[in-house]
Amino acid sequence: MAEAAAKLDSVVPCPPFQLYGRWNALLAIPSDGTKSLWTWAHDGDFFPESILDYVEVLRSSVVEGDRDLGCPRDPVRIDVDLTQDCNAHCLFCFSARYRTRLTTAPRIRLSDLERWLAELGRRARTKTIRLCGGGEPFAHPEIDGVLPLAHRYGLLQSVITNFDLVDEARCRAIFEHVDHFRWSVDAVSDTTRAVIHRPGPGANCLQRSFELVRQLVEWRRRERGAERRPMIWATFMLLPQNVPEMVEFASIMKEIGVDSVSFRPVKYPVHVTWSPLERARLRAGLDEVARLDAPPHFRVFAPRPTWSDATILLPSSHFADCLSRKLRTVVEPTEEGPTFQTCGLMRGSGCHPGHRLESDDAFASAWARVAKRRIPRVAPIECRRCIDISMNRTLTFVLDMLKGDPSARFQRALAPSNASEVSRLTLVDSWPNDVDAACQTANPAPYPPVCVTQVSGAATNLWADS
Ligand code: SF4
To answer: Which of 17, 107, 332, 365 could form an SS bridge with 83, CB 3.0 to 4.6 Å?
Structure first.
């Protein structure tokens, strides 16, 4: 351990694109060389920024004496809901319940977004802008002007889209300006997709979307080599109607060259009832897609086998303070103007007093104002459910470690899937950038695996809930 720790001084952390799919644990190494601790962690919570970005924000808070992050800090990631408009009407749409109450489809103006991003770029503390919904980002009439902005101001960009409104020119714009996109696929036949997504006129048929993404993967391979940017994650919301297509979906995505697929249970807003036969098909399908997992190039994330029986997890049983809402935020268009929401689950809750971004507001000062009057007031105590449990648990692990040792170092690591309390981890941050070449050798890690202790009650992988 001492040998590995000493060598860590010279390690330059790999960017997330090189390490995606290659780590599943976060190792904390005390500065005095005593026993290291680790917890399960994963990129699903942090990509395309790095968990190490969050470590450094937490470290500076502790060093400055702000041990519980009471003082506002620029958010590391900002979700921007560009528009409340959408071309589809998905059965499982979480925003339908509030979007249908709107008399207009409010949207963020291009000029406002550019002003905020220019400011955030100058301050250099925010890493990522994620365009999501609310509605569908490509339904925003100024989307072609929006896409180049993030890189222009030195920020990473992520997009969540159904891909229905993407043509070849937009596909190329995604390749040029987006670092990561999440693609809601949910079917392989247009018949099933029509039942689930209920798209309006003008949507791509699925075969067209598959062709476009295939082309994007080919551009990536030819022009960026081993750098898988943009990283592509395809998602599949599990419903009795589409379970017969889940295995074919995973096979097609693997063949196209997307980087991961994740199967997610629909827990809300619709209540889904599974017959015994459908449940049996689902379990068989989950087993079959799991066999397609081929890390690091193609990852399959499936919910735990008991998910459909499980009650919704109560966040306060998993972490004591919500760090997520202190390090991230959502900007949502409302009929009263753009407004902050303190977390994704507060979308659609209206424009709370003091939360609106006024036209003459600097982004940072508006955020600082909101940080002092967050709603809910006390989290997670006031939250009955949460989509950031896994991330909050990882951040709590980091903050607890730093409170005891502000100089502690953190490394992304690979733990065996059957990892026990004391396990051997492989340190992956120390891998060379050309990991593919290194992986062809018998032992790709230039440092010996380390033997470390897992924190008690450490996070299980809650990917399906994130
Ligand atoms: S639901 Fe509550 S605990 Fe979860 S991120 Fe939102 S505010 Fe935090």
So the answer is: 107
Rg (CA), the chain: 22
* Protein residue whose Cα sits closest to atom 6 of ligand 1: 343
- List % helix, strand, coil for the chain (3-state, nearest 5): 35, 15, 45
150, 98 Cβ separation under 8 angstroms: no
Q: What is the DSSP string of 127-161?
A: -EEEEE-SS-GGGSTTHHHHTTHHHHTT-EEEEEE
Mutate to test the pocket of ligand 1, among 76, 388, 465 (most ligand atoms within 8 A of CB): 388
How far, in Å, CA of 340 to CA of 330, rounded?
A: 6
In this structure, the residue with its CA closest to atom 1 of ligand 1 is: 386
The pTM (predicted TM-score) of the whole model is: 0.90
Q: How far is the CA of 465 from the centre of ligand 1 (A)?
A: 13
**pLDDT tops 70 at residue 346:** yes
Distance 163 CA to ligand 1 centre (A): 29
pLDDT tens digit sequence for 392-401: 999 999 999 9
| Cα torsion 263, 174, 428, 46: sign | negative
Pocket of ligand 1 (CB under 6 A): 315, 322, 324-325, 342-343, 345, 376, 379-380, 383, 386, 388
The C-alpha angle 203, 209, 214, rounded to 5 degrees, equals 165
pLDDT tens string 433-464: 444 544 444 444 444 566 677 775 443 333 32
What is the rounded CA–CA span in Å between residue 410 and residue 28? 5
CA distance 363 to 341: 14
N residues, the chain: 466
Ranges of beta strands (E only) in 50-169 are: 77-81, 128-132, 156-161
Rounded Cα distance between 407 and 387, Å, is: 30
CA of 167 to the centre of ligand 1 (A): 36
Compute CA distances 247 → 211, 233, 254, 289, 464, whole Å: 19, 16, 11, 6, 17
Average pLDDT, the chain: 87
- Structural domains in the chain, CATH included, are 2-71+388-465 (no CATH), 77-316 (3.20.20.70)
Token representation of residue 436? 């593919």
Contact call for residues 130 and 78 (beta carbons, < 8 A): yes
